[in-house]
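Figure 2 data, in text form.
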Amino acid sequence: MTLFDGGAKNAQYKQAIDAYDASVAAYRQTVLTGFQEVEDNLAALRILEQETQVQDKAVANAKQALALTNNQYQAGTVSYLNVMTAQTAALANQQTAVQLLGQRLSASVQLVKALGGGWNETLLPTADQAGGERKWTDYLILPLVE
């Protein structure tokens, strides 16, 4: 054991304290980043839900306008150009609704990731619980003639 170390032990002690402070600061930043990611994704889901509700109303209104325009065309009061315009508007609204759904699903996955979890496939709803099977014909504006 040496009596005089020229301040080496004090320097080692200060270095250990500084390393501890740095690791605490890094941990604190990691926790804050995690909270920020969770908060951001929760806010995104809330905003996207509101946008989806508005867009669903727009889709319903566009479908109603298309049905009215189609009836007017069949009655001979408007040209087919009006029907095509209504179809275009309905399709654009439906495309926006699908894009919003994709954004909501992406935000949900990001939220699960930010929470540090995953999911088990056994916990996912079945096709019947999720609303049944969907066919591509469900997304057509006009019904198919069979």
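Caption note: Residues 20 and 77 are 81 Å apart (CA to CA).
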